Amino acid sequence: MKRFYLIGFLLLMGFDTLAQISFKYAGTQALPVEASLAWLLRVFGQPWVYGAVIGYIGAFFTWMALLKHAPIGPAFAASHLEVVSVMLLSVWLFDEHLNTTRVLGALAIIAGIVCLGLAESREHVPEPTPAEA
Amino acid sequence: MPVTGSLSALVASLWLLNIVLDTGGQLAFKAAAGDPAAGDGLARWRHMAMRPWLWLGVGCYVIEFLVWIAFLSLIPLSEGVLLGSINIVAIMVAGRFLFGEKLTRLRVAGIMLVTLGVVIVGVGR
């Protein structure tokens, strides 16, 4: 059962990460930003926007499956900790730099997400687990 | 690519719009799903589909999808996802005021830490 959670959390992070990376690619290829039909056509005229859709749909179903079984606290944290994977990947894929403010900000945000996850865990008393699952 | 001047104002507007749409969408879905008169099963979905909340939520999410693409195309992705974390805070605060959800000490600490992180990233731009 532990492995089920772990795979579920990683899958959720993976889908969320795919969505954010796709959003970035889709947006960059549709530049310049303008409130026009031309911009919409540029956004939906290249494949990356559909990567974002797939990421969202995948994350939604993984989240629903996880919530059925997994404790809400860790699930909540896992659903927001994609900031870590997205940041690391953006260094590699988009040549971005992790300057001091971004690293400090990320540390505070991650600490906050962990606190919120712990708060959720405390408020929801876990159901007794089946003897063998 | 440094973002300055009017472009920076556009980034800030898109960021605020994203917060409003994300929070509005979540709250609309909450209002749709939490309606005690909705019943069960298929009847519940029919009940929700005949009222505005579900569609308001869907509309918010569709527009948010586009706003987020525009937002991320203007700033580095690593910065964008960090600034977007503020949505977690906005939804919890809105849930407190609209649905009377409890804010325990641990939750307040989490909210303050996430806010602090977003401020650090935002001010450091």
From TrEMBL, chain A:
Source organism superkingdom: Bacteria
Major localization listed first in the record, in broad terms: membrane
InterPro entries: EamA_dom (IPR000620), EmrE-like (IPR037185), Small_drug/metabolite_transptr (IPR000390)
GO biological process: lipid A biosynthetic process; lipopolysaccharide biosynthetic process
Topology within the bilayer: Multi-pass membrane protein
Record carries keyword Lipid biosynthesis: yes
Entry protein name: EamA family transporter
PANTHER family for the chain: 4-AMINO-4-DEOXY-L-ARABINOSE-PHOSPHOUNDECAPRENOL FLIPPASE SUBUNIT ARNF-RELATED, SMR FAMILY PROTON-DEPENDENT DRUG EFFLUX TRANSPORTER SUGE
Keywords: Cell inner membrane, Cell membrane, Lipid A biosynthesis, Lipid biosynthesis, Lipid metabolism, Lipopolysaccharide biosynthesis, Membrane, Transmembrane, Transmembrane helix
From TrEMBL, chain B:
Ranges annotated as spanning the membrane: 53-75, 81-99, 106-124
Name assigned to this protein: EamA-like transporter family protein
Classification via Gene3D superfamilies: 1.10.3730.20
GO molecular function: transmembrane transporter activity
Location in the cell: Cell membrane
The UniProt record lists the keyword Iron-sulfur: no
Annotated PANTHER family: 4-AMINO-4-DEOXY-L-ARABINOSE-PHOSPHOUNDECAPRENOL FLIPPASE SUBUNIT ARNF-RELATED, SMR FAMILY PROTON-DEPENDENT DRUG EFFLUX TRANSPORTER SUGE
Topology term for the membrane: Multi-pass membrane protein
Keywords: Cell membrane, Membrane, Transmembrane, Transmembrane helix
Main location group: membrane
Cellular compartments per GO CC: plasma membrane
